[in-house]
Amino acid sequence: MRFLLDTDHISLLQRQSGREFDNLTRNIGEQPRSEIALSIVSFHEQVLGCNAYINRSRDPVEIVRGYAMFDRLLRTFSTANVLAFDPTAAATFDGLLAQRVRVATMDLRIASIAISRKLVLVTRNLGDFGKVPGLATEDWTT
Q1: What is the DSSP code (8-state) at residue 36?
Q2: What distance in Å separates the CA atoms of residue 13 and residue 27, rounded to the nearest whole number?
Q3: Residue 70 confidence (pLDDT)
Q4: Which of 31, 34, 119, 141 has the highest Cβ tally under 10 A?
Q5: Which domains are present in the chain?
Q6: Are the CB atoms for 50 and 6 separated by under 8 Å?
Q7: Each residue of 39-89: pLDDT tens digit?
Q8: Which contacts of 15-24 are long-range, i.e. CB under 8 A and separated by 24 or more positions?
Q9: Angle formed at CA 17 by CA 13 and CA 23, multiple of 5 degrees
Q10: Is the Cβ–Cβ distance between 141 and 24 less than 8 Å?
Q11: For 20, phi and psi rounded to 5 degrees?
Q12: Contact (CB, 8 A) for 4 and 37
């Protein structure tokens, strides 16, 4: 395994439209499936988003749409290589906190998984992730 997709890239795949989606799918197609992974942290972020959408929904159409989002999420992650936030990632996370790296908690957890497994994080958020020492990044949407 060489690459970990950030949540922003996963979201683009789920939307299935636009130039960034086209570029992303082209780049993914150039890699063997075994080289690309998702993180349990991205799953967590997306579950929170689906849950918030459903909780805000006020009519049956929105509620159905929210559960359809959950269904797509479940299908996406159930067929992917999903990496855990394991003790090694947790230790990496604690080390980054000790260095006072100023990145959102979920992003720092994703970065910790990538660093601890020596993976390249594939993200559009190069500004924030660029603050994380030792993290290799690429943007596959350009």
Answers
A1: E
A2: 12
A3: 93
A4: 119
A5: 3-42+82-138 (3.40.50.1010)
A6: no
A7: 999 999 999 999 999 999 999 999 999 999 999 999 999 999 999 999 999
A8: 20/124, 20/141, 20/142, 21/141, 23/140, 23/141, 23/142, 24/140, 24/141
A9: 70
A10: yes
A11: -65, -40
A12: yes
pLDDT at 15: 86
Residue 129: Cβ within 10 Å count = 21
Q: What is the pLDDT of residues 108-142, one digit of tens each?
A: 999 999 999 999 999 999 999 999 999 999 999 99
Residue appearing with tokens 């009519």: 59
Question: What does DSSP say about strands 120-122 and 136-138: parallel, antiparallel, or unpaired?
Answer: parallel
- Put simply, whether the predicted model's pTM sits higher than 0.85 gets the answer yes
Residue 57 tokens, joined: 């929904």
The pair of structure tokens assigned to 49 is 């988003």
Radius of gyration, alpha carbons of the chain: 16
- Is the CA virtual torsion 90, 91, 92, 93 positive or negative? positive
Return the SS3 of 50. helix
